[in-house]
Design goal:
- A six-stranded antiparallel β-barrel has the order 1-2-3-6-5-4.
- The protein has about 160 residues and is α+β, with helices and mostly antiparallel strands.
């Protein structure tokens, strides 16, 4: 049984230029991206141990704040970092010398659908550009497609951190 998983491979520009530049800006200078109007959401570096190799991988990821909880969304679908987190790998979020060991809980079912509806309405530009949905005409079919394609994780500090 093989399930088709959605994964939109990042462009060569993203892998070879954007990600390394953002990683450097975030880790060395504390640049955390363009904040939302409320000044809550940031871009941080997710470090996650590979599920097969055990090597550490670093990716700039958007950290979204909702109801006091931080969330990570796999805008590219089932990316390696999402698969590594799902496998229970060690992980941390970093920004300019500050490292927070984390554990994640994957959202499922109605909780995930509610979060994605909220995300689409909050970030209309990103919803159109990355998620390929119209915030003004969001249907239940659109939400079901988003739930199937895009992993969402709630971030918590790891015990003892």
């Amino acid at each position: 049984m093989t399930a088709n998983r959605f994964y939109k491979r990042p462009t060569v520009f993203r892998r070879r230029f954007y990600d390394p530049v953002m990683r450097t800006l975030i880790l060395r200078f504390g640049f955390d991206g363009i904040l939302d109007r409320r000044g809550q959401d940031t871009v941080q570096v997710l470090s996650v141990r590979g599920r097969r190799t055990g090597k550490w991988h670093q990716r700039p990821v958007g950290v979204c704040l909702r109801d006091g909880s931080r969330h990570l969304v796999g805008f590219y679908g089932e990316s390696d970092w999402a698969l590594n987190l799902r496998a229970g790998s060690e992980a941390s979020l970093s920004v300019r010398g500050s490292v927070l060991p984390i554990r994640v809980i994957e959202l499922n079912g109605e909780e995930k659908a509610d979060f994605l509806r909220w995300l689409v309405q909050r970030y209309k530009f990103f919803a159109r550009a990355w998620l390929k949905v119209s915030p003004a005409r969001l249907t239940d079919d659109d939400v079901d497609r988003l739930v199937r394609r895009h992993p969402v994780f709630r971030v918590e500090a790891r015990d003892g951190a």
